[in-house]
Amino acid sequence: MAATIQEQKVTGTTMAMFLDYNPETGAFYRKLKTGPNSYPGEEITCLNDEGYIIVTMMGARLRAHRLAWVWMTGNWPKEDIDHINGNRADNRFINLRGATRSQNLQNSGMRSYNKTGYKGVHFCNQRQKYVAQIRINKKATCLGRFETLEEASAVRIAAEKRFYGEFAGSNDRPCFEKDR
User: Fold this and answer.
1) Whole-prediction pTM
2) Which helix (H) or strand (E) covers residue 83, if one does?
3) Rounded Cα gap, residues 112 and 120, in angstroms
């Protein structure tokens, strides 16, 4: 995702006037009193409904992980920024990496409506078996039908490692209803 109109208003120089960033902790701190309830030195911890830390600056609501990227690289990201550990509020620079939208989605966790507890695995009532699936090049691909949930999950995890590489997600962390 290219820099939004709101992001284009904020440069590294203007950001440094309003904020401090600690790349080891991922925390942003206010430099100035910008409103009745904000204080210099205060950590910014405002979470949106998707789990991202939001920083409001110069009338723009910006995601902290994108600000961290600008702070450290000097440029707005050309595409998505992926949280390697899947925690959207963890903005340590070591936990952030540039990613395409597809790669970012590969590293997502289970959907909230998942009933098996394993990403990419569902139960087929008709055949009374577990089905493992994966998306490759935007197409759902069936990996097979299995007697046990554990077998189906193991096949799914192996396929993630094979097809997604470093962007293979974890099969034990939740995902938010809305994509990143």
Assistant:
1) 0.77
2) strand 80-83
3) 12
